[in-house]
Amino acid sequence: MTTFDDRERGEERKFAMDEETAFRIAARRNRLLGQWAAQKMGLTPEETDAYAKAVVQADFEEAGDEDVIRKVLGDLTGAGCDVDEAEVRAALDEKSVEARRQLMSES
Predict the structure, then answer these.
(1) CA 106/CA 49 separation, integer angstroms
(2) Domain of life here (predicted)?
(3) Which of 53, 78, 99, 107 allows an S-S link to 29, with CB 3.0 to 4.6 Å?
(4) Can you tell me whether residue 62 is helix, strand or coil?
């Protein structure tokens, strides 16, 4: 029974670690997306930091990425930037890869 219990605890630890890693990647990705959008809107460095944090916070509104996409697209459109949903989704995908690469290089 001990081997089974050890294996189960190991799986639980791995699951928790995978979940934490996925959360950290998503948060980093959203921050990078916020920085990308802030640059398009011509925000100052201070405004960029605040905006990137707001994009990270937007991800807590609902499950999935739609809340983040909706916020960034709405803000870019409101700022008069010529951008569409496909471009925001492409940037989100690109920032996801970049976030994963950054986190893996820190390990």
Answers:
(1) 21
(2) Bacteria
(3) 99
(4) coil
Residue 105, SS3 per DSSP: helix
- Per-residue pLDDT tens digits for 35-70: 999 999 999 999 999 999 999 999 888 888 999 999
Q: How confident is the model at residue 1, as a pLDDT? A: 60
Buried b (16+ CB within 10 A) or exposed e, 82-95: ebeeeebeebbeeb
**In 1-107, where does DSSP find H-type helix?**
2-41, 45-58, 66-78, 85-106
Map residue 5 onto helix, strand or coil: helix
CA–CA distance, 36 with 52 (Å, rounded to integer)? 9
Helix (H) or strand (E) holding 42: none
CATH topology of domain 2-106: Major Prion Protein (1.10.790)
User: Are 32 and 88 in contact, with CB atoms under 8 Å apart?
Assistant: no
End-to-end CA distance of the chain: 34
Residue 10 in this model has a pLDDT that exceeds 80: yes
